[in-house]
């Protein structure tokens, strides 16, 4: 009946003939509460329930199983893999430095000051004339 009254715009419905305070409510509060509850649950609840995790279809498979290409390589004996590796290395040219005797990298860094350095103590803040005379 509420749905029928809510869609009727021409008539006004009331429980009393004399007073408008007894007007029939067009809004169903219980229905609004139910809609709000469903909307809030739809944000965090799936159709199946509380299960938001995507389950693995094959539980017998290890979660950290390597890819098939690595599994295929593991099927080949190590001796054969070593022979193939050595054959590919033989075809490569050895590394030759561009300039003989040139340093590959530069040691361009400063060591932090230590107690062996006399200038280290001059950088410390000194207060008073007595302390200045000691130096």
What would you note in describing this structure?
By secondary structure, the chain is mainly α. It contains five helices and no strands. The chain has a domain at about 1-45. Helices cover about 35% and strands about 0% of the residues.
Strand count, sense and barrel status of the largest sheet are:
none
What value does the Rg take, in angstroms? 43 Å
Q: Bin the helical content.
A: 25-40%
Distance between the amino and carboxyl termini: 101 Å
Order of helices and strands: HHHHH
Averaged pLDDT: 77
Write the layout of secondary structure elements.
Elements: H1 2-7, H2 29-44, H3 68-75, H4 78-90, H5 129-134
What brief labels describe this structure?
mainly alpha
Question: What is this entry, summarized?
Answer:
With 135 residues, the chain is mainly α. The protein has helices at residues 2-7, 29-44, 68-75, 78-90, 129-134.
């Amino acid at each position: 009946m509420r749905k029928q009254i809510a869609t009727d715009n021409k008539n006004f419905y009331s429980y009393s003939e004399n007073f408008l305070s007894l007007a029939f409510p067009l809004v169903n509060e219980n229905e609004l509460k139910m809609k709000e509850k469903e909307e809030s649950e739809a944000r965090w609840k799936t159709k199946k329930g509380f299960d938001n995790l995507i389950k693995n279809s094959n539980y017998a498979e290890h979660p950290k199983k390597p890819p098939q290409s690595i599994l295929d390589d593991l099927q080949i004996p190590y001796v054969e893999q070593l022979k193939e590796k050595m054959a590919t290395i033989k075809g490569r040219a050895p590394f030759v430095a561009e300039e003989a005797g040139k340093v590959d990298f530069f040691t361009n860094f400063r060591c932090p000051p230590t107690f062996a350095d006399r200038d280290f103590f001059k950088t410390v803040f000194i207060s008073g004339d007595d302390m200045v005379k000691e130096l």
